[in-house]
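#help-structures
NK: newbie question, is this the right format to request a structure? protein is Threonylcarbamoyl-AMP synthase
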Amino acid sequence: MAKYYDVHPENPQQRTISNVADMIRSGALIAYPTDSCFALGCRLGNRDGIGRIRSIRNLDERHHFTLVCQNFAQLGQFVHVDKDVFRVIKAATPGSYTFILPATKEVPRQLLHPKKKTVGVRIPDHAVTQALLADLGEPLLSSTLLLPDEDEPMTQGWEIKERLDHVVDAVVDSGDCGTEPTTVIDLSGGEPEIVRRGAGDTARFE
């Protein structure tokens, strides 16, 4: 059964955040809120967690996982960023954007797009996510909590607990965080390419 944590959306309780971070370090797969919708998350090298995310969402090997980072310094460890890309990302973060970029050697091979060797990265604008990332000290490997054959992500923590009770280890709930996933921008080819229109405004990339 999944543990259920009810946290304040703006001032999350540090003890609770630390408990969740400890679970992640020990190999847990969690469902947690972001600035666009709920996500599934685990440690970067957690093979079991990655497998469970693929199973829950019915994902194939071409799926781009996302590294949810606390800040730009952390993001820069995992993807190659030139000056032009730096300016683009800096202007849009923190926010509801996922950027696809060439990965560094810090990213495990099983997370990369098999042909492009790219990975998604983002810096969320959400107090609970940021508190969790600060305590964890590393990115969360994540994927939008969108179940197969459903059009919209689940928005209620209690519903996630009810439906995924035996496949996730914890649910972090801070209230409704919306149904719109991030806007996905592919920057791996130099020019911005809008892959998915979502919660982030695309005007700056068009």
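mod (FA): yep, format's fine, and the tokens are attached above. The domain at 3-196 is CATH 3.90.870.10 (DHBP synthase).
NK: thank you!
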